[in-house]
Amino acid sequence: MTRFQRHIFICINERPPGHPKGCCKEKGSEEVRDLLKAELNKRGLGGIVRANNAGCLDACQFGVSMVVYPEGIWYGGVTKEDVPEIVERTIIGGEIIDRLVPNDEHYRPGQTHNARLVLPPRKG
User: Fold this and answer.
1) Which residues, including other chains, have CB under 8 Å from residue 7's CB and lie 6 or more apart?
2) Contact present, 100 and 73 (Cβ < 8 Å)
3) How far is Cα 99 from Cα 2, in angstroms, rounded to an integer?
4) Distance between terminal CA atoms of the chain?
5) In this predicted structure, what is the pLDDT of residue 101?
6) Residue 49: which CATH number?
7) 43, 57, 58, 44: which is closest to 8 by C-alpha?
8) Which structural domain range is residue 37 located in?
């Protein structure tokens, strides 16, 4: 098994003020990233799931954007309130949260296998 079962790339790109697409950073992506990392660590998943900063994912028009690999699940308009649900349903459970998938065919999930995580044994 590889070191990380999933990678989550969160866009923290910053565009100039007034850009028509906006940018994820001005929409709160750094806070979402920090909360996501904290939630993963709180659940003991830091060793098997990696949350990474990403430059532009070219989806800022949808709000804070992220992509989960290896499945290639794209989410847009992510808020800090979405973080626990993303960890529970997508990262652990392998589910796609339809309301977070951008309404654009280029970001729709393909025929992927969304497997549940293999959780490490609990300590203590």
Assistant:
1) 49, 50, 51, 52, 68, 69, 70
2) no
3) 30
4) 24
5) 95
6) 3.40.30.10
7) 57
8) 6-107
The C-alpha atoms of residue 73 and residue 8 are separated, in whole angstroms, by: 9
Report yes or no on 112 lying in a domain: no
pLDDT tens digit string along 12-45? 988 888 888 888 888 889 999 999 999 999 999 9
pLDDT given at position 33:
95
Ranges of residues in the chain with a pLDDT under 70 are: 1-2, 110-115, 124
Question: Cα–Cα distance between 8 and 66 in angstroms, integer?
Answer: 7
Angle at 36 between CA 88 and CA 103, to 5 degrees: 75
**Using an 8 Å Cβ cutoff, are 34 and 80 in contact?**
no
Across 15-111, the runs of DSSP E, i.e. the strands, are: 49-54, 66-69, 73-75
